[in-house]
Amino acid sequence: MKNFIEEVTWRGMLHDVMPGTEEHLMEQMRVAYVGIDPTADSLHIGHLVGVMLLKHFQLSGHKPLALVGGATGMIGDPSGKSNERNLLDEATLRHNQEAIKGQLARFLDFTSAEPNAAELVNNYDWMKEFSFLGFIRDVGKHITVNYMMAKDSVKKRLSGETSEGMSFTEFTYQLVQGYDFLHLYRAKKCTLQMGGSDQWGNITTGTELVRRIESGKAYALTCPLITKADGTKFGKSEGGNIWLDAERTSPYKFYQYWLNTSDVDAEKYIKIFTFLDKETIEKLIAEHNEAPHLRALQKRLAEEITVMVHSQADLENAIAASNAFFSPTMDELKKLDEKTFLEVFDGVPQAEISMEDLNAGLDMIAALAAKTNFLASNSDARRELKQNSISLNKEKVGEDKIITKEDLINNQFLLLQKGKKNYYVIKVK
Question: Is the pTM of this model over 0.70?
Answer without folding.
Answer: yes
